[in-house]
Structures are given as structure tokens and as C-alpha cells.
Amino acid sequence: MLSQENTRLLREQPADSLLEAAARTRTMSAVTLLGRDKEMLKRLRSHFPQMEHFAGPESASFRRQPPADLLICGLDSESSALERRLLAVLTSESRPRAVLFYGDRARDFAFEQRQELRSVPVEVLPPHTSDEALARKAQALIELGHAVHATGTDYPLMGRSAAFEALMGEARRAAGLLDPVFIKSDDAGEAIALAHYMHRHGDSRHAFVTVRVALLGDEPESGIEALRGLIDQARGGTLMIDNLCALPNALWDEIVSRTEGLSQVRLVAAGRPESGRSPEQLMRPFRPLLLEIPGLRDRRGDIPLMVHFFTLQFNLQSRTPRYLTQSETDELLGSQFPVDLSALRAAIYARLMSAERTPSSEPEVELAKQDRSLDEYVAEFEARLIEQTLKRCGGNKSKAARLLGLRPNTLHYKLERYGLSGRKS
């Protein structure tokens, strides 16, 4: 019964990047605190003793630092100069992998800058967050930040699965080449994001131009005229066709005649076969490199990361902190499995927007109707959570401590206190 109750409590917790598997913690994660908040510094140092601390983004020492895995910044009052400098850091090529804001001004600042911050994992810390919850949020953001590859689009590339890591390795190698590329993908948005990633990591400093086939219209004459303008814009850069198989023959012939053998434009196309048209045959004149983005069914282990990221994106845009529970995440992987990334994001947003949802970042615990103190309820919940986490970590106490956001000696004390130290996992 205790094990079943532990499972129920864990499944009611907000889903994040640490729930499905023990954190792949990097012992030297680069955590940086900006600001003169001694209390926050003390709280963080107990969990991240290796962290750095700087007075603000204008600090010369801070500017010399490599990008942080997690940047934590307090914003208590409006300061346009400070916010401009901070935004410059967050949108630079050396931006942190993830950001945690806190303070009275934090949510408004994040909302105002939501467009610039859309491809970086950003979270606003709720007031009165416990030390353990703070450490967990920080560690979850670090894990998510290592899985997200910013692309400058609404679709960052994210994943830690072997299939995804192999794809990103191929994309990095292809980025330095000028050869045409065909991207096989279930999702046009994800294909565009991958093309953006290669463009940003290549040698070109010229334009990235996307041909959105659906917007070219049905009239060949007007479509060809619009297409010629896009090709001219892409000179020296990248021309991306979002759905090659849906492109009318006349427009494709125009692209072939104007770009074949032209080294000034790198052609990238994406799509899946439809209406009997083979993208490989269409691209044959260009002898392209081939990249295939694995479908969601081939990277199920990445979906908790995607749920976490899109939840943070939703909160950034809505100003209201809402979270899916782990059980809701499991339901997304059930019979109505999302066909692609766009469908997954839509499903996450629909659940977060549901009228019944409570805007809270903490799990709800149903209290028994007994005359017991709050401390007793908290102790019972904590004991169950520790026991369940130890089981998930195979009895590895160091790993369990990291997952729970506790120091090893604190976990040892709690194991003794709750009589769990002698149990085998």
C-alpha cells in the first residue's frame, strides 16, 4: 500500500526534466547568480557549492565567464538600464543554457521579453519556494538546458536520446559544407529549426530565407514571381523549402533552373512523400546530403523534456504558472500519441489552458480527515517521496540526493529519521 501511495504522490507532481529518469548530473554544472542577494547566495551554495556570483551583467568578471549552464537572476524593481544589459546577455551567442528569474519584477520582465527568450528554457521562481524545491527546479533547468539546441525559431531542437544525438552530430558536420540538404521529417517546423541550426553553425553570415509552400498560392505566375524574390534574398545564404512534395511542378522547375550549380545559395528542403511524389527523386539533380529527424515514437524518452520546455514556453507567454502532472504526461504517450512536435505542443497547451487547471507549481496532496499536525503530514509525505526516489535510483543514495535536491548528509539524516536506512531497494 505504501508503495502504491508513493507512486500516486509522485505522479501528482509537476512534470519536469527529472521525473522520468535520474538526472544525468554534471558534478561541475556552471551555475551563476547575478545580483547582491546574500540570502539567495546562501541557499544556492548549499546545493551548488561550485556556483559563481557576480553583482550584475555589467561586471567585467561576469563578461569573461563562459556561458553558464544556469543563470539565476533576481529582479525586484524596474530598471531599464539593468534590463537592457541583462537582455543583451540572454540574446547573445554566449547566452546561458537556461535561466531562472525570481523577485517582484521577474514575471513581468519575462513576459515583456518573451519573443526574445522563446528558444531558451526560462522559468520564474514562485514566491516562498522551499530550498528543496529551488534546488530541484534549478537541476531540472540544467538538465533541460543541456538537451535544448537554440535555433532562433519557435522550435528549438531538443533531445537526449541516441537517435537525436546522432542526428545532431550529422547536422553539425553538414553545417560546415555547402552541399544541398534534404531533411526527412514528420514536422515542417522541426525541419526548419534544423535548417536554421545548420545555417547558424555554418560559415554563412547572409540571409536564411524560408519558402512556405502553402503561402505561394495556386496561381503559377504570381508564385513564380514571389519565388524569384525569395531566391534573390537568399543569395549568399540558405534557401529553405518547408514542404517540397507540395510544391507545384512549375515552381520546382523554377528553383532548379535558378539554383542548380549556383554556389551562392545553399538549398535545403524538407518533406514527406505525398500524392506519389518522391522527395528523393525531386532532389536528385542536386545530389543532396540526407538527414532524417526521428519521429516522436522513436524518441519517446525525449518527450518529458519536450513537455517541460513547452510548459515553460506556455508560462512565459501567459504570465500564469501552470504545470502538467506526471500522470498527464503519461496520458500524452497513450493511445492518442501525438503524430509530430506540433501536435504534441498543441496537446500540451490545450491541457494547460483547461478551465479546471489550478495555476500552481506544487502537487496537491489529499489530507486524511484525521486530527494530525502539519508537521506529521509533511514528514509522512517526505518519507514516502524519499523511499520512492531511492527505489527509482536503484538504491544509489548519491543519485537520489541529487534528484531530491538534498545534500548527501541531509539525505542520510532523513533516512535515519524515517527508519529507511536499513531497507534494501
Q: Would you kindly provide a written description of the structure presented here, covering whatever features stand out?
A:
With 425 residues, this protein is an alpha/beta fold. It folds into 3 domains: 14-151 and 300-354, Rossmann fold (3-Layer(aba) Sandwich); 162-293, Rossmann fold (3-Layer(aba) Sandwich); 374-418, Homeodomain-like (Arc Repressor Mutant, subunit A, Orthogonal Bundle). The chain is 44% helix and 11% strand. The protein has helices at 2-11, 38-45, 60-63, 80-90, 106-112, 131-147, 162-175, 188-200, 220-233, 249-259, 279-283, 303-318, 326-332, 341-353, 374-392, 397-404, 408-417, and strands spanning 31-34, 52-54, 70-74, 99-102, 122-124, 148-149, 157-158, 181-184, 208-211, 238-241, 266-271, 289-292. A 5-stranded parallel beta sheet has the order 2-1-3-4-5. It has a 5-stranded parallel beta sheet with strand order 9-10-11-8-12, sandwiched between helices. Helix 1 packs across helix 15 (374-392).
